[in-house]
UniProtKB/TrEMBL annotation, chain A:
Coiled coil: none annotated. Keywords: 2Fe-2S, Iron, Iron-sulfur, Metal-binding, Oxidoreductase. This is Xanthine dehydrogenase YagT iron-sulfur-binding subunit. One of its GO terms (molecular function) is 2 iron, 2 sulfur cluster binding. It comes from Stakelama pacifica. The lineage of its organism: Bacteria, Pseudomonadati, Pseudomonadota, Alphaproteobacteria, Sphingomonadales. SUPFAM superfamilies: 2Fe-2S ferredoxin-like, CO dehydrogenase ISP C-domain like. CDD domains: fer2 (cd00207).
From TrEMBL, chain B:
Transmembrane segments: none annotated. The lineage of its organism: Bacteria, Pseudomonadati, Pseudomonadota, Alphaproteobacteria, Sphingomonadales. SUPFAM superfamilies: CO dehydrogenase molybdoprotein N-domain-like, Molybdenum cofactor-binding domain. InterPro entries: Ald_Oxase/Xan_DH_a/b, Ald_Oxase/Xan_DH_a/b_sf, Ald_Oxase/xanthine_DH-like, AldOxase/xan_DH_MoCoBD1, AldOxase/xan_DH_MoCoBD2, AldOxase/xan_DH_Mopterin-bd_sf. PANTHER family: ALDEHYDE OXIDOREDUCTASE MOLYBDENUM-BINDING SUBUNIT PAOC, XANTHINE DEHYDROGENASE. This is Xanthine dehydrogenase YagR molybdenum-binding subunit. Residues 40-146 form the Aldehyde oxidase/xanthine dehydrogenase a/b hammerhead domain. SMART domains: Ald_Xan_dh_C. GO terms for molecular function: iron ion binding; oxidoreductase activity.
Length: 176, 740
C-alpha cells in the first residue's frame, strides 16, 4: 500500500479513491465520520434513522444509509460519496441529468438521491428484482414504476420526484 | 455607496422593462445556476460550517408537558468524558419558535414549560456523541401544572384573535336566511390534522462570537427579520448579529422565524467562549419547532338551481399555545374565490398545550381549501351540475366582499384548459360505478387560489466594465430558485449572459431582502433587483447620451441611436445601485391572487381501501412566469404536498399530554417516489401590472392550494362516499367499499 498508517489513528478508509485515517468514537456513525471528522459534507443528515435516504453513500459498490452504520464497522472499506461521483466542473451523467430535469429544489436530499440512483442502476443491471418486478429472474426493465419503487427510500420534501425519475430514466437508457 | 432607488407600489406599472429588453433570459426554462453545486455536494448548508476549537451542542428537553422546573441536575451529565458544560438561561432561552416576519423576540423563558419536549438546556461537549449521551443524563425536576390537550373541549373556550393574514371574522348579509331560501345547500364539517413541514434539512445553528458580536450560520428563511429577532432575544443591538444562510435545505414555513437551537447555541457559545454547532434531531424538529395547526371547519353553501351561490360560510377553529396570536387562516381564499352575497367567514383559536402552530406552506389555503373545494364538489353533485361548470358559474369579476377589481384573474381559463388537457369529458360520471379488476376508478378536480403579496425588499447591484455583475441581498433561496431568477432578471436588464451574473444571498452584510415566505420572495426581491438595474440603465443612458427607453443592452454591449459599444467603452469604473420595492396602495385597491385548477385520477382498492394516484393535470395563471422550469417545480412540489395532506400526513398528538407520537419520518408519512405519478403542469400567459414591475405573482404555494381536495373529490367519485376527516387513510374508506 502506498499510504502510511498514521500513529494513533486506529482506522483506515478508502473514500473516493483517497486514503483517510481516523480515530472515531465507537458511537460515531459513518455519516458523522464523513461530515464531522473528514469534512466530506456532501452526504446529508435528514433523520439519522435510515428513514429519509439523504445520507446514502456507496460502500464497496452497494448503496447504504450511512447514518445506520457505525464508522468502526468499515475498516478498509471502499466508500464513494457524492464528492466522488463528480464535481461542478465535471459532472457525472446522473448529476448532469438532475440539473437538466430539475430533479431537486433545495438540494438537501440530492446527494443521497444521486448516490442511491447510482447504486440502483447497478442493481438493476445485475438483475435484482424489486417489489414491483413481474419476475424474480431475468433482465430488469427499468420502467417508471420500477424506478419509483427502487428510489422510494429517498425522500424529497420539495417533491421533485417526477423530475428525478426523468433524470434517472434518461441515464438508464443511455447506451453503456 | 449609492442612493437607494425606491418604488412604492401605489400605482400599476403598465410597462415592464422585461418586455422591452433584449437579452432573452426571462421566462425560459433555464437550468438552476446553483444546480452543479447542489448535485455534487458542494452547496454548504448551515451545519456544514466548522471552526477551529468548535464543539457540539445538544438540546435537553422537558420530559413533561406543563409545569415549572424546580431543578436541573447536571451532575451525571457533566461527569461524562468530553462534556464541557450544561448551559441554560431560564429567561432568554426560547420557549416558542418565532412566527414569520417578526422582528422582535419570540416567547422566551423556559422555567415554565408549556408543551412536551420544550428545550430547556443545552449540553456542550467536544464530540457530538458525547453531547448526545450526556443530554440523556440530565435530570429535570418539576412541579406539574395543568394543561389543555383535548381539541374538542378547548373549542368551547376558543377565542377570536386579532386579524392576521386574513380578517379573523367577516360577516356580510344574512347567511342563515340565504341557507333557508336556497334551492340547494351544503352544511358539513371537515377536520384536518396537525402537520409538519418536514423540510429535509433539520434546523441547525453554528454560533460564534467576536468583538463585533454574534455570527450565526443558521438555516433561516427570512434573515432580515431573524436578525433583529435573534438580537432582541439575546439583548443585543441588531447590528451585533449577523446571520449567514446561503443554502437552506427546505423550509416550507418552518424556518421563517428563529427556533430554539439558535438562542441556545448563541448563549452556550458566549458562555464557554468557543464556536458551538447545534443541529436539531428530526425528533426535536417535530417536537419543538412549529406545526401547521389542526382545524375544524364548518362550510355552508347556499345556491339557486342555476348553481349561482347566494351564501357562503366558512367557520373555522384551529389550535395554538396560550397567548400566541397566530391562527390558521383557513378561510383566506373563501373571501375572494367565489361570489355570493351572504357571507360569514370566521377564525377562532382553541388553546392547547401542543407545540406552537404557525405558517406551513400556504397557511390558510392549504387547510381551508381541503374543505371549501370539497363542499363545492358536494354542491355540484346535489345540483346535478358539472363541478367545473359550477366553479365557472361562480367565477367573479370583482372581489365579492371589498367590491374591488382583481389585479388579474384567469380562473375560468385555467378550469377550461385543465379540463381539456385532462380529458374531463371522459371522466366517471356516476360515483362508485367505474371499476377495473379490484380497483375502483375515480376522477376529481378542484379550483386553486393563493393570495399574492409584496414585501419591502432591497438589493444592491454592481455592474463592472468587463461586462459582469454582482447582485447582493440577504434574500434566501430555499429551493425556490432565487439564485436563478435574480440572475435572469439582472442579466436581462443589464444585457449580460446569465453566467456573467454572480448572485450572493443569505447574509446580513447585504441589503435586507424580503426573505422567503408567503410566495412573495420572487416578486419582492426580483423587483428590488429590477429597480437597481433600472437605475444602472439610466446611468448608462446618460453615458450613451440617450433616453433610457432608447437604450438597448445585450451581450455586454450598449446600443442606442445607431451606436454599438462595449460596456467598457462607456464605463469609467463600476456602477453600483441599490433598489428597493415597497408595498403600496395596490395592495388595497385591487385583489391580487394567483389562480388555477387541479384534475386527478385515482384508484381505490375495493378490498383494502388503498388509494393510488394515477394521473394529474394542473393549470395555473400567476402573472409572468420568470423561469418555466423552476416555476413548474414549485407547483409540482405544491401538488405533492397536497397529495400528502389528502392521504397520509397527520401529526398524532398523545391525548394525555399533547406530545407528538409519530415524531419521525417513518411514522409521519410524506409522499415518496412510489406515491407520485407524472404530473402535467401548465401555465397560462398572464401579466399582472398591479403586483410589481415584473408583472409576476407568487407560485410557491399556489400548487398546494386545492390539490388535496382534488384527491378527496376523486376518492368520493371512485367510492360513492364522502369522508371529511383528513387524511383519507384506508381505514376511513373501508365502510364505503363494496362487499368483497
Amino acid at each position: 500500500m502506498a499510504w502510511e498508517r498514521k500513529v494513533g489513528k486506529a482506522m483506515h478508509f478508502t473514500i473516493n479513491g483517497k486514503n483517510y485515517d481516523a480515530d472515531p468514537d465507537i458511537r460515531t456513525s459513518l455519516l458523522d465520520l464523513l461530515r464531522e471528522h473528514l469534512n466530506l459534507t456532501g452526504s446529508k443528515k435528514g433523520c439519522d434513522h435510515g428513514q429519509c435516504g439523504a445520507c446514502t453513500v456507496l460502500v464497496n459498490g452497494r448503496r447504504i444509509n450511512s447514518c445506520l452504520t457505525l464508522a468502526v464497522m468499515h475498516q478498509d472499506d471502499e466508500i464513494t460519496t457524492i464528492e466522488g461521483i463528480g464535481t461542478p466542473d465535471n459532472l457525472a451523467p446522473l448529476q448532469a441529468a438532475f440539473v437538466k430535469h430539475d430533479g431537486f429544489q433545495c438540494g438537501y436530499c440530492t446527494p443521497g438521491q444521486i448516490c442511491s440512483a447510482t447504486g440502483m442502476l447497478n442493481e438493476a443491471k445485475q438483475g435484482w428484482p424489486s417489489h414491483v418486478s413481474e419476475r424474480l429472474e431475468g433482465d430488469v426493465e427499468l420502467t417508471d414504476d420500477e424506478i419509483r419503487e427502487r428510489m422510494s427510500g429517498n425522500l424529497c420534501r420539495c417533491s421533485a420526484y417526477p423530475n428525478i425519475v426523468d433524470a434517472i430514466r434518461e441515464v438508464a437508457e443511455e447506451p453503456a | 455607496m449609492s442612493d437607494t432607488y425606491t418604488l412604492t407600489m401605489d400605482d400599476p406599472i403598465e410597462t415592464s422593462l422585461l418586455d422591452t429588453s433584449a437579452q432573452g433570459l426571462i421566462g425560459k426554462g433555464l437550468d438552476r445556476v446553483d444546480g452543479p453545486k447542489k448535485v455534487s455536494g458542494q452547496a454548504t448548508y448551515s451545519a456544514e460550517y466548522s471552526f477551529e476549537n468548535g464543539c457540539y451542542g445538544f438540546l435537553v428537553r422537558a420530559p413533561f408537558a406543563v409545569g415549572r422546573i424546580t431543578k436541573i441536575d447536571t451532575q451525571a451529565a457533566k461527569a461524562l468524558p468530553g462534556v464541557i458544560d450544561v448551559v441554560t438561561d431560564f429567561d432568554r432561552f426560547i420557549r416558542n419558535s418565532a412566527q414569520g416576519a417578526v422582528k422582535s423576540a419570540p416567547v422566551q423563558g423556559v422555567r415554565d414549560v408549556a408543551y412536551f419536549g420544550e428545550p430547556v438546556a443545552i449540553v456542550v461537549a467536544e464530540g457530538y456523541e458525547q453531547a448526545r449521551d450526556a443530554a440523556s443524563l440530565v435530570r429535570i425536576e418539576h412541579e406539574a401544572g395543568s394543561g389543555n390537550f383535548d381539541f374538542a373541549e378547548a373549542i368551547a373556550d376558543a377565542d377570536i384573535p386579532p386579524d392576521g393574514a386574513a380578517p379573523a371574522t367577516h360577516d356580510q348579509g344574512d347567511l342563515d336566511k340565504a341557507m333557508g331560501d336556497a334551492d340547494a345547500t351544503v352544511d358539513e364539517v371537515w377536520t384536518t390534522p396537525s402537520q409538519n413541514s418536514a423540510a429535509m434539512e433539520p434546523h441547525a445553528s453554528v454560533a460564534l462570537w467576536n468583538d463585533d458580536g454574534l455570527t450565526l450560520y443558521g438555516s433561516y428563511q427570512m434573515p432580515s427579520f431573524d436578525r433583529p429577532s435573534l438580537a432582541d432575544a439575546l439583548g443585543l443591538e441588531t447590528e451585533q448579529v449577523r446571520i449567514i444562510t446561503p443554502y437552506i435545505g427546505g423550509g416550507f414555513g418552518s424556518k421563517l422565524g428563529i427556533a430554539p437551537e439558535s438562542v441556545a447555541a448563541a448563549i452556550a457559545s458566549k458562555q464557554i467562549g468557543r464556536p458551538v454547532k447545534t443541529v436539531m434531531t428530526r425528533q426535536q424538529v417535530f417536537d419543538a419547532t412549529v406545526r401547521r395547526s389542526n382545524t375544524r371547519q364548518r362550510v355552508r353553501l347556499a345556491a339557486g338551481k342555476d348553481g349561482k351561490l347566494t351564501g357562503i360560510g366558512h367557520e373555522t377553529h384551529c389550535s395554538n399555545l396560550p397567548d400566541e396570536v397566530f391562527f390558521e387562516p383557513a378561510g383566506i381564499a373563501t373571501h375572494f374565490l367565489y361570489g355570493g352575497e351572504h357571507r360569514r367567514i370566521t377564525h377562532a383559536i382553541a388553546r392547547l398545550n401542543r407545540v406552537l402552530s404557525g405558517s406551513m406552506r400556504a397557511p390558510g389555503e392549504a387547510a381551508g381549501m381541503l374543505a371549501l373545494e370539497c363542499a363545492m364538489d358536494e354542491l355540484a353533485e346535489r345540483l346535478g351540475i358539472d363541478p367545473v361548470e359550477l366553479r365557472k358559474i361562480n367565477d367573479c369579476k370583482r372581489d365579492p366582499e371589498k367590491d374591488i377589481p382583481y389585479s388579474s384573474r384567469s380562473f375560468t381559463e385555467c378550469l377550461d384548459e385543465g379540463a381539456k388537457r385532462f380529458g374531463w369529458d371522459k371522466r366517471n360520471r356516476t360515483p362508485g360505478k367505474m371499476r377495473e379488476g379490484e380497483w375502483l376508478i375515480g376522477h376529481g378536480m378542484s379550483g386553486s387560489a393563493r393570495g399574492n403579496q409584496l414585501q419591502p425588499s432591497e438589493a444592491r447591484v454592481v455592474l463592472r466594465p468587463d461586462g459582469s455583475a454582482i447582485v447582493e441581498t440577504d434574500m434566501t433561496d430555499i429551493g425556490t430558485g432565487t439564485y436563478t431568477i435574480l440572475s435572469q432578471i439582472a442579466g436581462e436588464l443589464l444585457g449580460l449572459p446569465i453566467d456573467r451574473v454572480d448572485v450572493r444571498l443569505g447574509d446580513n452584510r447585504f441589503p435586507p431582502g424580503s426573505g422567503s415566505g408567503g410566495s412573495f420572495g420572487a416578486g419582492s426581491s426580483g423587483s428590488s433587483v429590477y429597480l437597481a438595474c433600472e437605475d444602472i440603465r439610466r446611468k448608462l443612458a446618460t453615458a450613451m447620451d440617450c433616453e433610457p427607453s432608447d437604450l438597448t443592452l445585450k451581450d455586454g454591449e450598449a446600443i442606442a441611436a445607431n451606436r454599438r459599444v462595449s460596456l467598457s467603452d462607456i464605463m469609467s469604473g463600476e456602477i453600483e445601485a441599490t433598489g428597493r420595492i415597497e408595498p403600496g396602495d395596490q395592495g388595497d385597491e385591487v385583489r391580487q391572487a394567483g389562480h388555477g385548477a387541479h384534475f386527478c385520477a385515482v384508484r381505490v382498492n375495493a378490498v383494502t381501501g388503498e388509494v393510488r394516484i394515477d394521473r394529474w393535470t394542473a393549470v395555473f395563471a400567476a402573472g409572468r412566469i420568470l423561469n418555466e422550469k423552476t416555476a413548474t417545480s414549485q407547483c409540482l412540489g405544491g401538488v405533492v404536498f397536497g397529495i400528502g395532506a389528502a392521504l397520509t400526513e397527520e401529526l398524532v398528538h398523545d391525548p394525555r399530554n399533547g406530545k407528538v407520537v409519530n415524531r419521525d419520518l417513518a411514522e409521519y408519512h410524506v409522499p415518496v417516489h412510489a406515491d407520485v405519478p407524472h404530473v402535467d403542469i401548465r401555465f397560462l400567459p398572464e401579466r399582472d401590472t398591479h403586483a410589481n414591475p415584473l408583472h409576476a405573482k407568487g407560485i410557491g404555494e399556489l400548487g398546494i392550494a386545492g390539490a388535496g381536495a382534488a384527491v378527496a373529490n376523486a376518492i368520493a367519485n371512485a367510492t360513492g362516499a364522502r369522508v371529511r376527516d383528513y387524511p383519507l387513510t384506508l381505514d376511513k374508506l373501508l365502510d364505503s367499499l363494496p362487499p368483497v
